Amino acid sequence: MTTFKLFFISGILAFALIGCNKPEPQVIDMDEVAAEAGLSKDDYTVHENGAIEVHSKVEADNSNNRPLATHGDNWHYVITNGLLVADDYATKNNPSAIFSIKSPSVNLIKQYGGKYEGKYLLTIVNDNDGDISFAQLLPLFDINESSDSLEDKLNSDTPLWEVTLAKYNGREF
User: Fold this and answer.
1) What percent of the chain has pLDDT over 70?
2) Does 72 share its domain with 127?
């Protein structure tokens, strides 16, 4: 036999003996993987099947765990006050931005990080024929009290919200 055939046959035999064995199971420390991704223990859950569920840092609350203010009869007036505050801010800083026309999307969102961590902010997004207005408002009232207690403020010119961020077509103003 030639040397080439000898090496070829021994290579095939080695592959058959070594390469066809059952592979060793890989042990992966999911906590280590999560740490490398920059997640703390509170940011994720490892399930029995090894899947990682990452918890969102920003969460739109459902009605079961929303602050007490959202359950009062005056909540829709409080939201309207927020729209008026955002429109007033836009009028003074960028009149092209419009918040109260064409059914804006309004959400109360609890912050899980950043400057307003632990607080609720009202976000308003309005798409006016492709021009996007965005506002983020901080409540100037106790969000954990019923909105019914705000009736006297609703009947005055007192703003219930403060604009913390406003953008028009992605540009802050």
Assistant:
1) 66
2) yes
